Write the structure tokens for this entry.
Amino acid sequence: MSDKLKVVLVDDQGLCRRGLCELLSNCYDFSVLGTTGSVDELRKLLDQKPDLMIVDLRMKPLDGISLLQLLRSEGYTTPAVMLTMSDSETDLTNAIRAGVRGYLLKDMAPDDVVDAIRRVAAGELVVAPTMTMKMIDMLRGEQVEQEPKNSLKLLTDREREILQLLARGESNKAIAQSLNISYDTVKQHVRHILNKLNLSSRVKAAVLFAKEQGGHEEDLPRC
């Protein structure tokens, strides 16, 4: 991206807002337009047309999902990333149904949070690695776009190996370490996998892999 990614941070805890603000402000490609825990202040920040808003789930008086629903009803369409401590499948489901583009956990490594936010900005649906299986459980049985049957046969052995690790919830960094290849090589393989399968996110690729395995839980170990 040639321009900086403009973000707004929403959390009712000042310490969390400050920590995330410092993390993103130290990245060359981010511009934090503001941080807030107030709905009124958030509306003013959204009027500046940020690229993303990063929203906490557990907030008062409005939780993150209720806040997003309110904003959508008022015509605000800024894409949202949920950043939370909750690893509940119910919260994940509700957040995805509310239209979030990402569901990240606060105990993720800082670099992984930044990488995930970049991927959301690039158009990908992103969930925390440890939530991948829960996302698969949620989507299992639903159609994953219009991929042809047996489309995984288009993948090389290495690409299938990487896809299997993605389905287990491994991050790009963890995959690189596991396979003793570079982080950039993993990113390139993931791009090739998505292009070959004509899918828009690694989550959907993981669901497709689960379907090929017959949907058996034992085929996809939990993280």
In short: DSSP finds ten helices and six strands in the chain. Strands lie at 5-10, 30-36, 52-56, 80-84, 102-105, 126-127.
